[in-house]
Structures are given as C-alpha cells and as structure tokens.
C-alpha cells in the first residue's frame, strides 16, 4: 500500500494568513492607525458610504482610503476628489484581500500621520469574509434592494463583522424588505453586532455611524 502525505491546503493558507493579520494589527496599534475593513456586495453603495464617511469625519481626523477592485480605478478617482489620500489596489482577478495584500496596500498608501484608514474590499459576500485582513474592525453594508434573506445565505459574513450598515433605508417603502427580520437574523449569528440603518444618498444615520468610528479610533489609540 502506498503511503503519502495529505496536506490541507486551505487550512494551511488560513493559518499563515491569520499569523500575518495578527502581526499587521500589532503594527497598526503601535502606529496608532485604525484600519476599517468595509465589505459588501457590488452595488450596495459602498463607495458612496465611504464618501459620506469622509465628509462627516474629515474635520476630526486624518483619513486614508484603499480602494480594492479586480480592475478599474473609478472609485479611487471619486475619493481623490475629496482631497483624501487614496490608493487603488488591483487584485489581479482575486475576489478578496488577505493580510499580505492589505499590508502592501498600507505601505503604498503610507500611514504616517493617518488616524483612520478605510479599506474598501472587493465587492462580494463570500471570499472577503474568509480572510482576516489585519483590520482593527470589520464592517459590512447590506442594501435594501438586496433583500432581507442575506444573513441566511451568507452567515459567515454577518458572523465576523462588528457593524452592519443597512443602506438605502430611504428606499425601504419600495421593496419587500423586513428590517426587523434582518436585525433578528444578524443578532442570532452575531449577538454583539451593531446595526445602523443609513442612507448614503440622503445622509440618514451617518451621524451615528461617524460617532461609532470616532469612539473606536479613540479607543484604538488609547490601547
């Protein structure tokens, strides 16, 4: 009988990435830089939310943005118009960022003097949830048109985030969307999750979102 070694590739990849992520988080703590990993499906209003967030916080802290996409630099151009320091990350076809990619992005951005960095991850609800980027906190956006069943379909994403932004709340009357059902389903997966309904278009809920960030950045710097 032949004997051979079985290597669990996926498990090994995750273990290596988790070590890299922990190291990056320690570096960010030393530098007093707070990194937010922002995830969502395409079309959820992620970039518009980033722009609203910059507008709400730019007088309180120095902000940097990393825009991750498989291709294009459209989002980075939109962020650059605000005067915010931004870098575009192309993943070369990969549907997520891992800790090493994030570290490369931070080196390219340059975090000297930056209080708060937003990593706008690649748009999907599967791969980004599996890889720890080394971020200080994780957030996701679920938009009203996507439906209220997403916590049932993508439980891992809802389980690993600290904040759920329910975007396009101004359009809720036009869709069959049960807000309380989403809250219940998300809380069942993640009892500590903070849920903030927002409209990146109108600005509804952005003050609460910005206050959460201010508190988290302050706590991060005091650790």
Look at the helices and sheets and give the structural class.
Answer: alpha/beta
The gross shape turns out to be: globular
| Overall radius of gyration | 18 Å
Largest sheet: 7 strands, parallel
Strand content: 15-25%
Percent helix: 40-55%
What order do the SSEs take from the amino end to the carboxyl end, as H and E? Answer: HEHEHEHEHEHHEHEH
Q: Report the count of strand segments.
A: 7
List low-confidence stretches: none
What strand line-up does the widest sheet have? 3-2-4-1-5-6-7
Distance between the termini: 56 Å
Protein name: Hydrogenase nickel incorporation protein HypB
Organism: Clostridium simiarum
Family: Belongs to the SIMIBI class G3E GTPase family. HypB/HupM subfamily.
Keywords: GTP-binding, Hydrolase, Metal-binding, Nickel, Nucleotide-binding, Zinc
Write the layout of secondary structure elements.
Elements: H1 9-31, E1 34-40, H2 46-57, E2 63-69, H3 74-80, E3 85-90, H4 99-109, E4 116-120, H5 127-130, E5 137-143, H6 150-153, H7 155-160, E6 163-167, H8 179-189, E7 194-197, H9 206-222
Parallel strand pairs: 1-4, 1-5, 2-3, 2-4, 5-6, 6-7
Helix pairs in contact: 2-9
Question: How would you portray this structure in words?
Answer:
The protein is an alpha/beta fold and 223 residues long. It has 9 helices and 7 strands. The radius of gyration is 18 Å and the shape is globular. The model has no long low-confidence stretch (mean pLDDT 92). Keywords: GTP-binding, Hydrolase, Metal-binding, Nickel, Nucleotide-binding, Zinc. This is Hydrogenase nickel incorporation protein HypB. Pfam families: cobW.
């Amino acid at each position: 009988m032949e004997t051979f070694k079985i290597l669990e590739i996926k498990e090994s990849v995750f273990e290596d990435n988790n070590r890299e992520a922990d190291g990056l988080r320690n570096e960010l703590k030393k530098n007093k830089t707070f990194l937010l990993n922002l995830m969502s499906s395409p079309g959820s209003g992620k970039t518009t939310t980033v722009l609203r967030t910059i507008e709400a916080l730019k007088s309180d802290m120095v902000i940097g943005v990393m825009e991750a996409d498989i291709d294009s630099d459209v989002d980075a151009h939109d962020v650059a118009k605000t005067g915010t320091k931004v870098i575009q990350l192309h993943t070369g076809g990969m549907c997520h960022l891992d800790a090493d990619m994030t570290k490369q992005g931070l080196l390219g951005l340059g975090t000297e003097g930056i209080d708060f960095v937003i990593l706008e991850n690649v748009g999907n609800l599967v791969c980004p949830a599996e890889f720890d980027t080394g971020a200080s906190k994780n957030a996701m956006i679920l938009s009203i048109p996507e439906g209220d069943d997403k916590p049932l379909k993508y439980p891992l994403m809802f389980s690993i985030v600290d904040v759920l932004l329910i975007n396009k709340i101004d359009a809720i009357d036009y869709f069959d969307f049960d807000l309380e059902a989403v809250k219940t389903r998300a809380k069942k997966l993640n009892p500590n999750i903070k849920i903030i309904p927002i409209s990146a278009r109108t600005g509804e809920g952005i003050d609460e979102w910005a206050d959460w960030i201010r508190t988290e950045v302050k706590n991060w710097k005091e650790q």
